[in-house]
Amino acid sequence: MTTEQLHDVRLHVNGSVHEVQVPARRLLSDALRHDCGLTGTHVGCEHGVCGACTVLVDGTPMRSCLMLAVSAVDAEITTVEGLTEDDGTAQGRLSPVQQAFSDCHGLQCGFCTPGFLTTITAGLRETPDPTEDEAREMIAGNLCRCTGYQNIVKSVLRASEIVAERERGEA
Amino acid sequence: MKPAPFAYLRPATLEEALAALAGEQGAKVLAGGQSLVPLLNMRLAAPSMLIDINALPDLGHVRVAEDGVRVGALARHAEVLGSAEAEQAQPLLAMALRHVAHPTIRNRGTTVGSIVHADAAAEVPMVLRLLEGSVDVASVRGRRTIPAAELFAGPLESTLAHDEIAVEAFFPALAPGAGVAFQEIARRHGDYALVGVAAHVETDGEAVTRARVGFVSVSDVPVVVDVTDAVQDPAGDPAATALAELDPAEDIHATAAYRTHLVKVLAPRVLAAATDHARSRAGEAIHP
Ligand SMILES: Cc1cc2nc3c(=O)[nH]c(=O)nc-3n(C[C@H](O)[C@H](O)[C@H](O)COP(=O)(O)OP(=O)(O)OC[C@H]3O[C@@H](n4cnc5c(N)ncnc54)[C@H](O)[C@@H]3O)c2cc1C
Ligand code: FES
Ligand code: FES
After folding, report:
1. A61–B41 C-beta distance less than 8 A
2. Which side of chain A, N or C, has fewer Cβ within a 10 Å radius?
3. Average predicted confidence (pLDDT) for chain B
């Protein structure tokens, strides 16, 4: 058996640098989970359909199961672990989207949630005050087996309010 | 579901990429990876080497000139869709791209990669054919331009040689007096089409001088049918003319009969919309 060549890859994730040694075929999703120990990124289908593995690449949502770790060297990656806001405390405070999911019961088993949180975080930057239709369109590329989506749509709308409240310094 | 092992190269220049591709028979180009990586994950493809073109310079452009829109090999679907100038010059491009997958896929997948991938269920290859565009390809042997009519050889098979990299696609601008329209039926918006139909209609005053219709997911290669005669004949049936050249197949998403039905419904609708579009544009040109 020949041993597979390993590549030294420097990943920038949530503001930290991770030096990992991986074969070229290591998917970014697996590198995040197994090599960086960031198991918040979930893996469902591994062909781009379910959205559970969605992370932000330079702020833009992309499927980490359809990227190679070796191909992510130039990018700043944000996973669900990186969404929490720094408020001086050890655990930080929930981001507006995370808080809205908690407020609106936007999750049940939570498997799909990391992908929704990253997707909506970026979506609200582009559409800060979405209509209900725009909220549905924002999450149309993510699958959830539990919630029936209604409370996720509510969470999008609530998150948009929380962003505005925090900007006004109310929350 | 993990890819089989492969060697990996991330060249910094096009020359380096072309030399590597020419030197390795089993090598494949990696662009956005939104079609290739699923194939690797499912082990439907097992290239010996991937040549990642994402670090190549000067290929991310969406350039608009009087004659049309030029899209570089690293322009993502989202960037092409985000160009208001491109939409202005050739509205069909944006009309079709809105149906290509979900935004997250469009953030990574490239428009040129979609053309090279040559999926008859994909919108962009058909649109390039309908607009009579072309693709510029490079290899160690030099450069050439492949007209869209000569680009698609078979299911998921383009006529690029193994050692060629597509560097740019060209979508001609919409001429004055011409109009376009696009409609698609999918299970959910963003899913692959059960049937998608685009029309390109040229008019001279009230008369239609040329009418062509392109189809997604009703044949195994991107197909365009000239229906000018059927449109000019008051008793003509453009959908029937088109169906004579289509081969709707049954799969897990739809029966052949349902696809045939969708062609009959969508083709006349899209032709009417494109004709209206052409006339409204002609009107704008006269009364600016
Ligand atoms: C969940 C999901 C849904 C999708 N839905 C749709 C849809 O509705 N409609 C649609 O059209 N597409 C859809 N796609 C596919 C998507 O549009 C892809 O981005 C596109 O087909 C391929 O572009 P890419 O840059 O990702 O290419 P890659 O996956 O990197 O490459 C695809 C193929 O083209 C070759 N290639 C790519 N670029 C070049 C180049 N410049 N020169 C030479 N060879 C090249 C590669 O070697 C490979 O064989 C979907 C994908 C996913 C994952
Ligand atoms: S695991 Fe990546 S989209 Fe499903
Ligand atoms: S909460 Fe269980 S899959 Fe979405």
Report:
1. no
2. N
3. 95
pLDDT of B288 over the 50 cut:
no
Nearest listed ligand to the Cα of residue A61: 2
Say yes or no for a CB contact (<8 Å) between B104 and A54: yes
Q: Is the pLDDT of residue A69 over 60?
A: yes
Residue B19 CB neighbours (<10 A): 15
Asked if A24 has any chain B CB less than 8 Å from its own CB, the reply is yes
Q: Could you read off the pLDDT of B76-106 as tens digits, one per residue?
A: 999 999 999 999 999 999 999 999 999 999 9
Which ranges constitute the DSSP H helices of chain A? 28-30, 96-104, 113-126, 132-138, 150-167
* pLDDT: which is higher, B288 or A108: A108
Q: Is A111 in the pocket of ligand 3 (CB under 6 A)?
A: yes
Ligand 2 centroid to residue B251 C-alpha, Å: 23
Residues linked to residue A85 through DSSP beta bridges, in sequence order: A93
Residue whose CB lies within 8 A of the most ligand 3 atoms, among A49, A104, A113, A152, for a mutation test: A113
**DSSP SS3 for A87:** coil
Contact criterion met (CB below 8 Å) for B263 and B243: yes
A13-59 tens-digit pLDDT:
999 999 999 999 999 999 999 999 999 999 999 999 999 999 999 99
CB half-sphere exposure, A134, CA atoms < 13 A: 12
Rounded to 5, what percent of chain B is helix, strand, coil? 35, 25, 40
Identity at A91, one-letter amino acid code = Q
| ipTM summary value | 0.95
Give the model's pLDDT for residue A170: 77
For B130, the token pair is 């309908």
Q: Does A102 touch chain B (CB under 8 A)?
A: no
Q: Do A27 and B189 touch (CB under 8 A)?
A: no
Are residues B196 and B182 in contact, defined by beta-carbon separation less than 8 angstroms?
Answer: yes
Find the radius of gyration of the CA atoms of chain B: 19
- Confidence grade of residue B155 (pLDDT, cut at 50, 70, 90): very high
* Disruptive mutation site among B37, B43, B51, B253 for chain A (greatest number of A CBs within 10 Å): B37
DSSP letters, B180-195, are: EEEEEE-SSTTSPPSE
Q: Is A120 on the interface with B (CB under 8 A)?
A: no
Q: What is the pTM of this model?
A: 0.96
Tell me, in angstroms, the distance from the centre of ligand 2 to residue B272's CA. 40
Q: pLDDT tens across B11-63, in order?
A: 999 999 999 999 999 999 999 999 999 999 999 999 999 999 999 999 999 99
CA distance B120 to B227: 20
Q: Does A70 touch chain B (CB under 8 A)?
A: yes
